[in-house]
Amino acid sequence: MVEVMKIAPETRILKMLGEDLIKDEKTALIELVKNSYDADATDIKIFFKNFEDNFELNDGSEIYIVDNGDGMTKNEIVNNWLSPGTANKRRKKKMGEKTKLGRVYQGEKGIGRYSMLKLGKTVELFTKTSSEKKWNHAKLDLSTYDSEYFESPEGTHLLSELEVVYEEKNCDDELVLSHLEDKGTILKLSNLNGIWNAKKVNEIYDDLARLEPISKIIHGWSSNKNIESYVEKFSINLFLNGKETSHKKLFLEDVVKFLNLLEKKCLVSITNGKFDDKTGNFEFYLNGSPHIINFQSTSFTKYPAYKRYFLERENFKIEDLRCGGFNFEFYAFNFSSRGNYLKNYVLTAEEKELVEKHRIYLYRDNARVYPYGEAKNDWLEIDALRGLIRANEFLTNGQTVGFISISHSENPLLRDKTNREGLIEDGEVTFEFVALLQSFLNYLRRDIYETVLDGLKEEELRVKREADRKAEEMRKVKEAEEMRKVKEAEEQKAEEIRKAQEVEKKKTTEGQSNRETISEKEKLGKKELELSDREKRLAEREKEVRKQERRVVDNYIGMKVEKTEFFKQSNIVTVPANLKVTIDYNELLKQVTSLDYETHYLVYVMAFRALTEDLAKKYIGARELTLKAGLGEKIASVIDDLKDITKQKDTTLTKPQKEELQRFFGGYNPFNNQLDVIKDKFHKEGQQQILATKLNTFAHTPVWMNQREALDIANNVILPLMLLSDRVIVFLKENQK
């Protein structure tokens, strides 16, 4: 005989759904506030009644959670609120329905409301819709059940037998009721559980206040606008024994401080970020400028965070991504005091503490996924990876603020755990999502952050150069003014002498004795001699000024070999310890001193062009090759000849001489390959802005060359060619002997 049986859950399932499943009182309150959020509440108030001043419990302590949401009818209480596991919100989400205010429903599993049993054993519900005149009241009292009852064999009690008393009744607390108008919900909790104190309540408010992302405030922030206006659509206030606490006020004050800090001292600002899982592109604005990078580009895949996950997945393709696209924002602060170039971004101890209150948060459909973003929750394993790989691969959690947004529609496989402790680790999907974020944060630290630092360093150098230039101009102006005054004084004295001579001539008469005439001439000659001496001193002074100017140029340019890193640190050649590379300094100085002082930074480009032109002509002349017109073509002729004379059949050089040349690059193949690389840099058909073109163009048009690029050109392009070409010329002379 076939018999149909039914599942009959016991009352203890409520204890499991509430007290056992929910981690703590904070998580429980968050779940209940999310229900208010789903009911389109814009104002939520939590009353702590009959508590001690430090929020410790008394025997008669009660908690009221009051919201001005849509409220519930009697039918909704029976079919939804009292029915564990209802899927009405899940169905609405699946159909794409939203609340009247456009909110995406946060509830999904139909058990969040039972977190109230984590807070207290007695629950009273007062609720009404705007169309109802009276309040619906339901009371669930589990205070007579204790843990021993649920665990004992005699404690078997079916859930269907549990009585919930219903009646139409107003809340008897007038203060609580005064905060509602024609609709809303009041949840009264008594016979409270757990341990309460001020620290726990502070943490609870801090998390509740971040239910919606403050990034919404960041984008519309204006210091002229009241911060309250930014949160008026979802406001949470706490009351202790009838008086409003300072939690909201202090939180908003901290938010204002953070927004001002963000505006003035944020080093790296990444906004409007979006990861497209169809193309693999990260698109974002970096400090206001648009950027895009593909997560499979070499700039991305070279970092260890990418390699740890994606390289282990055999034959991985973009089409294999299952986590979906997401939006992101990151704000990175400087926690180091190194370098004067960072002086505008150094944080005080108080400012660091303020930044550390904000972490990297995850939001789904505009509501936070807990506990991600809490101080001790390293959900992206950033601090762990800093220790596992290298500290400089990631910024710390403390100095990075982030807002990552997913949605029910775009990320259906990223689902919350039943206990509200983050995302379900469903196969590889969650790991994949976390790995993408880790990879981007690795790229943020090693590429973006370093580029910003380099830019600040270069800006500091530019400002210093400009200050030095202006100081030098002022010195020259001052010196010229002094010279002008000296000349004017000398000219004035000369004029006085001339006038004196004319006066003396007029006084001279034919009757004056020859002796008087001779005496006057001696006086005149003495004054002329004095004038001549002054003119000589003036000429010497001008000559000394020219020498000083030349020394200033000399020190400013710093081209002496012993003062520069150029031609000493090659990455591609083995430079002998006793190597001495001489530079025709006098010739370079002639070129530089002919330039305007504003273009002194072109000296490296001018030097590079002069050196490459000279070494090419010298080598081509020694080898009796055809002299080409362009610089790139000359260098190409040199490189092609170097490659030819190292071949086995060529007898221009001896075998030991060929081997010595090849040792510069570590062998025959590296020798040929590296010469091809250098040749392509100078001259490659069809390419624009190659090195030869740059050197020719920059020598005539003032364009700043990055010092890192200049070092690379000097040490890894010019130095190898100088060594090889000079060595070949020496070998040829030896063979001729």
What layout of secondary structure does this protein have?
Elements: H1 12-20, H2 25-38, E1 43-49, E2 62-67, H3 74-81, H4 88-94, H5 116-119, E3 120-128, E4 136-141, H6 147-151, E5 165-168, H7 174-177, E6 184-192, H8 198-209, H9 215-220, E7 235-240, E8 243-244, H10 247-265, E9 268-276, E10 281-286, E11 289-294, H11 298-301, H12 304-309, E12 326-332, H13 349-356, E13 360-364, E14 367-368, H14 382-388, E15 400-406, H15 429-507, H16 514-557, H17 585-593, H18 603-623, H19 631-645, H20 655-663, H21 668-682, H22 691-698, H23 707-736
Parallel strand pairs: 1-7, 13-15
Antiparallel strand pairs: 1-2, 2-6, 3-4, 3-6, 4-5, 7-8, 9-10, 9-12, 10-11, 12-15, 13-14
Helix pairs in contact: 2-8, 15-16, 18-19, 18-22, 18-23, 19-21
Condensed summary:
With 737 residues, the chain is of the alpha+beta class.
Low-confidence spans: pLDDT under 50, at least 5 residues? Answer: 548-566, 579-600
What is the first-to-last residue Cα distance? 117 Å
Shape: elongated
Number of strands: 15
Overall pLDDT score? 78
By oligomeric state, this entry counts as single chain
The fraction of residues in strands falls at: 5-15%
Number of helices: 23
Radius of gyration, in angstroms, nearest whole number: 41 Å
Record keyword descriptors for this entry:
737 residues; alpha+beta; 8-stranded mixed sheet; 23 helices; 47% helix; 12% strand
Question: What does this protein structure show overall?
Answer:
With 737 residues, the chain is an alpha+beta fold. The chain is built from 23 helices and 15 strands. The protein has helices spanning 12-20, 25-38, 74-81, 88-94, 116-119, 147-151, 174-177, 198-209, 215-220, 247-265, 298-301, 304-309, 349-356, 382-388, 429-507, 514-557, 585-593, 603-623, 631-645, 655-663, 668-682, 691-698, 707-736; strands spanning 43-49, 62-67, 120-128, 136-141, 165-168, 184-192, 235-240, 243-244, 268-276, 281-286, 289-294, 326-332, 360-364, 367-368, 400-406. The strands form two sheets. An eight-stranded mixed sheet has the order 5-4-3-6-2-1-7-8. A seven-stranded mixed sheet has the order 11-10-9-12-15-13-14, covered by helices on one side. A hairpin with a 2-residue loop joins strand 13 and strand 14 (367-368). Helix 18 packs across helix 19 and helix 18 crosses helix 22 (691-698). The longest helix is centred in the middle third of the chain and has 79 residues, at 429-507. The chain is elongated and about 135 Å long. Residues 548-566 and 579-600 have low confidence and may be disordered.
